[in-house]
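Margin note from the TA: students keep mixing up input and output lines. Inputs are the sequences; the output is the structure of the whole complex. Example:
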Amino acid sequence: MTSSLRAPSGAGALRPDLAIIAANVAPGSRVLDVGCGDGDLMAALQRDRNADARGMELDSASVATCVSRGLSVIQGDADVDLADYPDHAFDYAILSQTLQTTRRPDLVLEHLLRIGRKAFVSFPNFAHWRVRLSLLWGGRMPVTRLLPVAWYETPNIHHVTVDDFRALVATRGIVLERAWFLNGDRETSAAAANFRAEHAVFLMSR
Amino acid sequence: MADAALLHASKRLTLPDPLPLDSGQSLAPVEIAYETYGELNADKSNAILVCHALTGDQFLASNHPITGKPGWWVRMVGPGKPIDTSRFHVICANVIGSCMGSTGPASLAVDGAPHAMRFPVITIRDMVRGLVAMLDALGIGSLHAVVGGSMGGMQALSFASHWPTRTRAALVIASAARQSAQNIAFHEVGRQAIMADPAWENGDYYASGKGPEKGLAVARMAAHITYLSEQAMHEKFGRRLQDRPDGTRGAKTFGFDADFQVESYLRHQGLAFTDRFDANSYLYITRAMDYFDLAEEHGGKLAAAFAGTRTRFCLVSFDTDWLYPTAESRSVVHALNAAGAAVSFVELSAPFGHDSFLLDVPALDRVVTGFLGADR
């Protein structure tokens, strides 16, 4: 959906957050990728992890691309159509770079953990120091590498920080199993992640 | 008319056994007329069955014997096309109840007279039973895919639901798992138009050589409107007036001739249809569609229609199709998800309404190519 970090299709060219997710999905799992774009992660999971991957994507051209790659993808909106999936139908539900574009991120998160036994969520961290500086010194909504679109046309309607997300997860009684933080394309430490990480990936369960 | 179809059907087979029907009756003898395109491979694993729509026929990618027009899906089926006949053995059969060589109301019953209204009322599942019996006769155990648009999509859903081991994939375009009240209503208008024509003669018009052509034409006119979109009609005709046969410019006649181009077009569509279609077949096939409700066949739960299926599904709808709108496809997708099936779904943007599945929609070509080409 927001594809600022989208890598070209093909083996070994996954976006960094997707590479982390792909490396941490147990082999042979059933996976639902919500906001699957052109299906790069699904293709990698099927190829490298022997996963049974299904996808959901809002954009019809991207769905057509996925189907033409032999992937099982339905056109749908995370805010509306996740309700159609039965409980625990998947081992993992994945939402990469999409949470901040949904109308109700909290409800979407609940659905992910209802449909999947575990959920991966990745998002750009709005509290990264570069974003803070932009707002502090410029007094303008930040336009950065990970948030490349001006405020009036960005699909990101619910900006979120690492600490916001941790707080939401805590209040909902969700178990945070693992977290990964990215600075540029590299993993960075969890220390002061809310300040230093550009991008976060969380693995959760109930 | 039906005789002409019999003469031209290039392949026909007679089913070895009577065909049991949902009504409790059975039909015998049953002949199935079909066409094939592309070679069947040695292990008979590359067959694709294409199911035709209400007034369609087996002439998928070859010229129609009566109209002389190219096959109805020639843009989709052929060497190097989305349904690639250099790779797949493509079969398309005339459904029972129709009039292009397969057994229908115009066919002769055992007493030597046409069945006419003695023909049993059939269902979509009965049509598919006939197709499965044909595949049995051809020695084809499992299809690479079953494909259909509109009523063909209903058959594809019925096939995949009731004979799940007989196909590895199902492609369902501009269709539904049940006929809506609105669509039943349109069909009823068509049937009443036919039956109100004195020439219908309670269905016994075959000996007279002239059937209820006026009624059938009106039925086709009404149905044709439902196949288009308001936008497509506006762009094609607007409020433009039809030039007179003597070449004078179109003008309002202050009468009831076909002043508007859209009237002239519909009249032509209605009239041309009577050359190639049997009115009783139109009654029987629309009835079969009206009766179609796949959930009802499974205790009211559509998901139960697909329980445990290993078939891959792909559903496609069009944003301007108000006859089989996207919500119908979505409810099938919902059920397939609940059943844990491998399903793809996309709503494509195309201006042509329901007929989009027959027309130039490049995105549809991509989806069909990709879905049928994938071997998972």
